[in-house]
Amino acid sequence: MSTADIALETVSLGKCFRRTWALRDCTFSLPARKITALVGPNGAGKTTLLQLAAGLLQPTAGEVRVFGRSPLTHPIETLPRLGFVAQDHPLYRGFTVADLLTMGRKMNPRWDQQAAIARLEKLHIPLDTRAGKLSGGQQAQVALALALSKRPDLLLLDEPLASLDPLARRDFLRVLLDATMEQGLSVMLSSHIISDLERVCEYLIILSASRVQLAGDIDEILRTHKRLIAPRTDPEAVASLHNVIEVSHTERQTTLLVRLNGHMFDPSWVIQDVSLEDIVLAYLGQSRASQQSAEKVRRTDARNDAPVALSGVTEEEEAAR
Amino acid sequence: MIWMTWRQHRREALIFALIFAAIAIYIVVLGHAMYDDYYHMTGGVNVAQCRQQPAELESNLCQGLIGTFNDKYGNYSATTQQVVLAIIILPALVGMFVGAPMVSRELESGTFRLAWTQSVTRRRWLLTKIGMLAGALLLVVAAFIPLIFWWEKPFALGDSGLGSLIYPIEGILPLAYMLFGLALGFAVGALLRRTVAAVGVTLAAYVATALAIYIWARPNLLPPISTTWDSYLTDRSAEVSLNAWTLYNGYIDRAGHHISYGEAFQTCAPDGRVIDGPGTAYAACIHAHGWLTTIIWQPADRFWAFQGIESALLAALALALVALTLWLVRRRIV
């Protein structure tokens, strides 16, 4: 990927709150003009990562760059290109919706007032109501409308679907998809459920236990991850060639979830496709297991936990470093 | 940002505009009643004439008139105390209810995540708000400067000065205290991140600073003049200029210890009858103890120098507090 195609890039990014690492060794490159899903369990560091990208947090380690620049040291260049909606979608409660739109217009050079009004009218949100009087879902919609009407190049959304009903979710995801295609918008949105996002997202980051477990193009993730089934056996031979994410044995058979490095020639294994949800769950299970073993062994070498790099960072690039 | 500042602070602006207007109206009404009395003729003379003609100051009629007038309107009258109190607590109120909540309220409600992800940088967000709030307040307070001088003129004549009760509300000092109170609120709010705590700490810090300035800083803004003489041999009290701010008036011994008049009276005039002056028995006793009369004082003509130094001190403090706020908002918060 050339720099123009990278919306967001992190290098060994880490954030520590009072001796607890909320995010560690986070390295990935987010492709522009695509919707990226940031998934992981509660407390995985999703909010920390999004706030670091929005320039609301100062990194403890490493770097975060939005279109090549740090949002904290180059706010004049990056802020107009960034849209951010926090998890609790904060609004000034005493402001009317119209006041909030005026705020957006006065504070953003690329503001699209017509789009903002049209969007809120379509959602039947009255402009003369105070934000504090709106329902939770309406407040979320207003916050999203503010971020969208800013016409950012990168939109960062923290759990945007949580406050929306299923119909509103589908509608909102469609709006995002249109914006990526028509205006070249890049989106990163966090969620702890993947099923909603599979249809619209092209890129996936799995975050767990404060670390990136997987970052890559979803098509490629689906292509390279397979389920292997064979009569009960030791998976060592497979593990020497491919990355085994998950192993499960029954009395008679062994099932593996692997990331293939190249082709799989061993005819003793039956190869099946896996759903994205299963892949996510496998990675989350793996990170939990490695976290537990890490606590037992007290490993000092952090490299063992380095994220599995997929198309985001290719092997050549990694070697070039 | 200008619209945003107005929209977010218009309620406070309205409330403080009403408070300022109420104080101004009170001063004007009080001043009118006072000037009526000032020029009211009693027995062919009024307070204004008594004040302007030193010869008549000696007359019983004039002394009575001035005494009554000063009791009613003077430096230590209830009305003056009310006006001074109302004006000196204003910067604390502004710091508590405009300054302290500005950053802390955004942090508490989470709206900083909305405000600081618009296209406006935090530096501009903060400096625009501070600039507009400080500018508006300074304009209003500046309008009080001539009002205060007009109001205090009839009674402040013989008793004005650096040490007086009304000194902190005279001249440019109210501007400096207003800037300081506001900046203190900003910094405390950004530091504590909790509005209620910030309001309380702002008040405490303001009162502590104002007291520290009053007790320690103001008497020594310029080195005071010390006039010392042996009262048995001479009397140099005339060297102390009219309306001077007296910091110490008493005796010192050879080691430099202070001896109050009370102690001296007990020693040298146990019967309570003191006739002082060169050559008197009392002065001879003082002389025998090796005590020297000492007056430590600040001349009244240092008024504007003192105003300038104290204002510069407060403005520098305010600037440092604004710089601290800016650093906290840009680099340290969350």
Q: Write out the strand line-up for the largest beta sheet of chain A, numbering strands in chain order.
A: 5-6-7-3-8-9-14
Assembly type of the chains comes to heterodimer
Mean pLDDT of chain B: 91
Low confidence ranges of chain B: none
Low-confidence parts of chain A: 297-321
Topology record:
The complex is a heterodimer of chains A (321) and B (334).
Chain A: E1 6-17, E2 20-31, E3 35-39, H1 46-53, E4 61-66, H2 75-78, E5 82-85, H3 97-107, H4 113-122, H5 136-149, E6 154-157, H6 166-182, E7 186-191, E8 203-208, E9 211-217, H7 218-224, E10 225-231, H8 236-239, E11 243-249, E12 253-259, E13 270-273, H9 276-297, E14 308-309, H10 315-320
Helix pairs in contact in A: 4-5
Chain B: H1 2-39, H2 47-52, H3 54-57, H4 60-73, H5 78-109, H6 112-115, H7 122-156, H8 173-192, H9 195-217, E1 225-229, E2 245-252, E3 258-259, H10 261-268, H11 281-288, E4 292-298, H12 303-332
Antiparallel strand pairs in B: 1-4, 2-3, 2-4
Helix pairs in contact in B: 1-5, 1-7, 5-8, 5-9, 7-8, 7-12, 8-9, 8-12
Summary keywords:
heterodimer, A: alpha/beta, four-stranded antiparallel sheet, 28% strand, elongated, disordered C terminus, B: four-stranded antiparallel sheet, globular
Description:
Chain A is α/β, with parallel strands linked by helices and 321 residues long. Chain A is 32% helix and 28% strand. Chain A has 10 helices and 14 strands. In chain A, strands 5-6-7-3-8-9-14 form a 7-stranded mixed beta sheet, with helices on both faces. In chain A, strands 11-12-10-13 form a 4-stranded antiparallel beta sheet. In chain A, a hairpin with a 2-residue loop joins β1 and β2 (20-31). In chain A, α4 runs antiparallel to α5. The longest helix of chain A has 22 residues, at 276-297. Chain A is elongated, with a radius of gyration of 21 Å. Chain A starts with 5 loop residues before the first strand and ends with a helix. Residues 297-321 of chain A have low confidence and may be disordered. Chain B is an alpha+beta fold. Helices cover 66% and strands 7% of the residues of chain B. In chain B, strands 1-4-2-3 form a 4-stranded antiparallel beta sheet. In chain B, a hairpin with a 5-residue loop joins β2 (245-252) and β3 (258-259). In chain B, α1 (2-39) packs parallel to α7, α7 (122-156) runs antiparallel to α8 (173-192) and α8 (173-192) packs across α9 (195-217). The model of chain B has no long low-confidence stretch (mean pLDDT 91). Chains A and B meet through β5 and α3 of A and α1 and α6 of B.
